[in-house]
Write a structure and sequence with these properties.
Elements: H1 2-15, H2 20-25, H3 27-30, H4 33-47, H5 60-90
Helix pairs in contact: 1-4, 1-5, 4-5
């Protein structure tokens, strides 16, 4: 369930009009759902929002790094897929249809 929330956050950051000011700070990053998804997942894994149930690999720091990388990669791929599906179904919101 947490991955759905992370993908949702990613899509809101990339496509949401409420974050236009943030999107203008660095446009190449905020046009890419895969890129933003990686950063959202890295942050979620690093601060422990999305811990992975796994074997112990060593220290707590190395486990957090491991979580951050895996959650970041998973969120990146899921965000890319969700964005592609939604664009296919709903169309690109930046392409306005002129009557």
């Amino acid at each position: 369930m947490i991955y759905v929330a992370l993908v949702g956050l990613t899509l809101i950051l990339v496509r949401g009009t409420i974050f236009r000011a943030l999107q203008r700070l660095y446009p190449p990053l905020f046009r890419c759902s895969q890129c933003v998804g990686m950063w959202v997942g890295l942050a979620a894994g690093a601060i422990g929002i999305a811990p992975l149930d796994r074997w112990s690999i060593g220290s707590a720091v190395s486990e957090r790094v491991f979580d951050a990388v895996l959650v970041g990669a998973a969120t990146s791929v899921l965000s890319l897929a969700a964005d592609a599906v939604l664009l296919k179904l709903l169309g690109d919101p930046s392409e306005e249809i002129v009557p």
